[in-house]
Structure formats: C-alpha cells, structure tokens
C-alpha cells in the first residue's frame, strides 16, 4: 500500500480517470502494452487490484443478455497483449467455457506463445447455461429425446449476438480466421456449427464428442448407418476443402459398445465420422487429426492433455 497519503489520493484520482477512459477506448490499452503495464503496476502499488504477474494475456468477462437464449451468457475473453495488426489475429470460440480455468487455458496459451510454439490466438470461452443439453446439439433436429431443441437458437446467438459484440467491444472488424472447439456434447455443438457454416470457419476441435447423437433409441429399430445425426449431415453435405477437423478420444471415455464390436462407442463413432469425412473428400493426413489417448477419460484433465496438440495443429509455428 502507498505510505504517502496525499500522493496516494492523487494517484487514485488519476487512475480513476484513466480507468473510465480505458473502458470507453479499450483498444487503446491493447495497442499500448507498456502503458497497460504501468497502469497495472500503479493499481497494484495502491492496493486497488490484485495482480499476480504482468501477463501477456488479458482476460476479461462479458455478460451478454441474449434475446435468442433468454438468459445472460457469460463469456471469458483471453486476448493476447500487444497485437499490432488485429486483423491478423485468429479467433477460437470454445464451448463449456466455465471449465477453462480448471483446464488451465490461460497458462497454456501464455506458455505456448512465449515459447514460440504457436501464434497468438484470441480465445472466447462461452459458459454453458442451465439448459446445456437443450442448447448444445444439432440445429437441424433434436435427438430422439428432444434434447438439443434450442441448438438452432444457440447458433443464432453465436452469429447474431456473440460475434458482433466481440467485434465491437475489441474493435476488430474481421479476424484472420475463426475456429470452434468443444468437449463432449459441446464438441458436437461446435462441429455442427462449423459444418453448417463452412464459410465462417477453418478449424474445429472435437474432444470426446457426443457423436452418438441419434434420431432413434437403440430399441426402436435403430440403424447405425442412417440414424446418427452428425454422420448423416456429413454424408449428405458438401465438401469444403479448407475445413480441418481435430478429434480426440480416450480409451476410458466410456464402457458402452452398442454394436458389440469390441470398440467403445465414443471411439467407434469418431472413427466412423472420420471415414464419412474421408469419403466426402477430406484428406486424413492434411484435413484431419485424430488423437487417441490410451488412458484418456471423459473429463477436463484428459482434455487439458489434448488441448496443446490441438493448438499446435491449428496455429503452430
């Protein structure tokens, strides 16, 4: 804390003015990293904020009042500091953003950028809401239990509310490229959004994706070849050569093996979707990355192990 009370009060007044200006012109701080560092050090000196270190990454939280979803959506924004040409910055959207602190995303990004392993990436981690199983899914149709009934509205939220807000808030009219990633049902959601909006994205990351998503229950004349929703979309869709697909599975993802072929469903569904993509024209070496972790589970710790491989594959130097 400041020992000189008069000097402290003067600095507090200056910082309050500076903070208000910064809220109106956030882009100024981001373009002036040295100014931002001085600002943070002054705040730390005066005890106005807690800063563990001067980071190369700015984390801010947006609270978005969504008309489409009829709720406030929380999104954590991880913005690289000191970017000179914002239009050369890549954007990564991530479903289940509430798990990114546990996954260690901020530290991961900072360390990989600092070690020159990847290009700087602007990540926006979208927190799931209380109706996660309704908002995530496939927009074309819900599953056989009507889960995913709000997936179309979630897609509209992404394009009509989230992306415009990101552009206006951070003064970035366009990005170098955009990607989407997710875990479990969030992975299915990310894939569905990218597949149906190919001109908006380049990469998609599916970690332990819920690719079993189907129109019929297993005891209702279920047909493996026709009733898996995402597989059917790929089979009936168009080929877009720029799209790239990253898949992660773990041998301990689950225990179910509905077709009794000795391969758990999460791996089986992923491999068969990769085959669908290959049949469509995607190259298994250039367009598709498949990572199978021998001891991987259906949990955040496993996805944290896989995330660096995804980041390197998409933005590695």
Key descriptive features of the protein:
Rossmann fold; disordered N terminus; 41% helix; 8-stranded mixed β-sheet; single chain; alpha/beta; 317 residues; 8 strands; 2 domains
Per-chain topology:
Blueprint: H1 5-24, H2 26-31, H3 33-46, E1 57-66, E2 71-80, E3 90-94, H4 100-103, H5 105-114, E4 121-126, H6 132-135, H7 151-169, E5 177-183, H8 185-196, E6 203-207, H9 229-236, E7 244-252, H10 265-280, E8 288-297, H11 300-315
Parallel strand pairs: 3-4, 3-5, 5-6, 6-7, 7-8
Antiparallel strand pairs: 1-2, 2-4
Helix pairs in contact: 1-3, 9-10
Secondary structure tally: strands: 8
Helix content: 40-55%
Number of helices: 11
Which structural category do the helix and sheet elements fall into? alpha/beta
The description of the largest β-sheet is:
8 strands, mixed
**Could you name the ranges where pLDDT drops below 50 across 5 or more consecutive residues?**
1-54
CATH class of the largest domain: Alpha Beta
Write down the secondary-structure element order: HHHEEEHHEHHEHEHEHEH
> CATH topology of the largest domain, anyone?
Rossmann fold
Provide the gyration radius in Å.
Answer: 22 Å
Determine the CATH superfamily of the largest domain. Answer: Alpha/Beta hydrolase fold, catalytic domain
Let me know the average pLDDT.
Answer: 87
Number of domains: 2
Beta-strand content estimate: 15-25%
Question: What do these coordinates show?
Answer:
This protein is of the alpha/beta class and 317 residues long. The longest helix is centred in the first third of the chain and has 20 residues, at 5-24. It contains eleven helices and eight strands. An eight-stranded mixed sheet has the order 1-2-4-3-5-6-7-8, with helices on both faces. Helix 8 (185-196) links the parallel strand 5 and strand 6 (203-207).
């Amino acid at each position: 804390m400041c020992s000189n009370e008069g000097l402290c009060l003067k600095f507090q007044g200056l910082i309050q003015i500076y903070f208000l200006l910064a809220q109106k012109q956030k882009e100024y701080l981001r373009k002036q990293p040295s100014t931002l560092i001085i600002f943070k050090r002054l705040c730390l000196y005066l005890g106005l904020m807690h800063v563990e270190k001067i980071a190369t990454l700015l984390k801010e939280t947006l609270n978005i009042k969504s008309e489409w979803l009829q709720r406030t959506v929380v999104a954590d924004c991880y913005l690289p500091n000191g970017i000179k040409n914002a239009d050369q910055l890549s954007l990564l959207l991530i479903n289940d953003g509430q798990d990114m602190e546990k996954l260690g995303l901020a530290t991961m990004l900072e360390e990989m950028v600092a070690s020159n392993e990847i290009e700087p990436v602007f990540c926006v981690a979208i927190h799931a809401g209380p109706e996660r199983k309704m908002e995530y899914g496939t927009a074309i149709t819900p599953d056989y239990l009507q889960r995913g009934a709000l997936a179309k509205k979630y897609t509209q939220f992404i394009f009509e509310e989230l992306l415009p807000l990101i552009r206006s808030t951070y003064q970035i009219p366009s990005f170098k490229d955009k990607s989407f990633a997710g875990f479990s049902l969030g992975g299915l959601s990310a894939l569905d959004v990218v597949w149906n909006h190919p001109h908006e994205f380049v990469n998609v990351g599916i970690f332990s994706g819920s690719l079993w998503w189907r129109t019929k229950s297993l005891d209702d004349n279920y047909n493996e070849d026709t009733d898996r929703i995402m597989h059917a979309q790929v089979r009936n869709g168009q080929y877009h050569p720029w799209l790239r697909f990253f898949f992660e599975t773990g041998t301990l993802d689950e225990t179910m093996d509905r077709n009794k072929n000795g391969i758990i469903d999460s791996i089986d569904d992923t491999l068969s979707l990769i085959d669908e993509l290959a049949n469509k024209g995607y190259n298994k070496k250039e367009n598709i990355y498949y990572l199978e972790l021998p001891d991987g589970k259906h949990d955040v710790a496993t996805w944290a192990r896989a995330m660096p491989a995804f980041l390197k594959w998409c933005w590695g130097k």
